[in-house]
């Protein structure tokens, strides 16, 4: 398959039940921006709560990176059994389309899951992480994959020792977006990354995406819920 997003329907021959998903094939060295859903997007504790508020300006920052040609990757340590509620929340608040990673079942090490997933994207599929966003808990994850402090953007409360390990968005997403949009604040994705992948829109139908290997590219499976 050439690079792109392919809709697929699979039908069970016996009872004719079906599942719709998409195969996303991306070239090596595709540049991505990673967003940890929990804590960095929500003004309240959990996206599984009763319609938690989204942090002001969060959607605009994600859209800014998408419009520059970066592949958006959303990660969470939450189990895949919560995907419908979480993805519906992303769609409700018009977050741009992107790959979404959930933990496989209940995890005793959600941060470890995030690190393993991102490392797999980098090592197995040649994906490049240009920047990553999260809460203070995610700093160790992003540092472990080799990101520099100026590539790690953190919202919320951060201890003093973590200030040297990340870029803390003290004034929130709106001020950060203004900085990104200023001269030299951010650059378009380079190389093959701009050929790909995801429509410049929101989630529409809630979807989760799981990675699979296919040749030199990344094949991601989106399962509609």
From TrEMBL:
Gene3D superfamilies: HAD superfamily/HAD-like (3.40.50.1000). GO terms for cellular component: cytoplasm. This is LNS2/PITP domain-containing protein. PANTHER family: PHOSPHATIDYLINOSITOL TRANSFER PROTEIN, PROTEIN RETINAL DEGENERATION B. SUPFAM superfamilies: HAD-like. Residues 33-164 form the LNS2/PITP domain. GO terms for molecular function: phosphatidylcholine binding; phosphatidylcholine transporter activity; phosphatidylinositol binding; phosphatidylinositol transfer activity. It comes from the Eukaryota. Pfam families: LNS2_PITM1-3 (PF24694), PITM1-3 (PF24695). Coiled coil: none annotated.
């Amino acid at each position: 398959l050439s690079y792109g997003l392919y809709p697929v329907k699979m039908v069970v021959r016996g009872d004719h039940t079906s599942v719709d998903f998409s195969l996303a094939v991306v070239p090596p060295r595709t540049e991505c921006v990673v967003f940890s859903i929990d804590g960095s997007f929500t003004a309240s504790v959990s996206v599984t709560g009763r319609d938690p508020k989204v942090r002001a300006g969060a959607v605009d920052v994600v859209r800014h990176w998408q419009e520059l040609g970066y592949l958006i990757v959303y990660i969470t340590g939450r189990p895949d059994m919560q995907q419908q509620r979480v993805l519906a929340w992303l769609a409700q608040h018009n977050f741009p389309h992107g790959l979404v990673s959930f933990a496989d079942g209940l995890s005793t090490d959600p941060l470890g899951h995030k690190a393993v997933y991102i490392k797999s994207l980098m090592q197995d599929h040649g994906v490049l992480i240009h920047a990553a966003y999260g809460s203070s808990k995610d700093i160790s994850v992003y540092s472990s994959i080799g990101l520099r402090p100026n590539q790690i953007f953190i919202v919320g409360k951060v201890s003093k020792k973590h200030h040297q390990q990340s870029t803390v968005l003290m004034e929130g997403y709106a001020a950060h977006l203004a900085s990104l949009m200023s001269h030299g604040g951010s650059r378009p994705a380079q190389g093959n990354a701009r050929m790909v992948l995801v429509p410049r829109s929101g989630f529409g139908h809630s979807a989760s995406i799981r990675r699979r290997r296919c040749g030199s590219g990344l094949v991601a499976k989106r399962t509609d819920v």
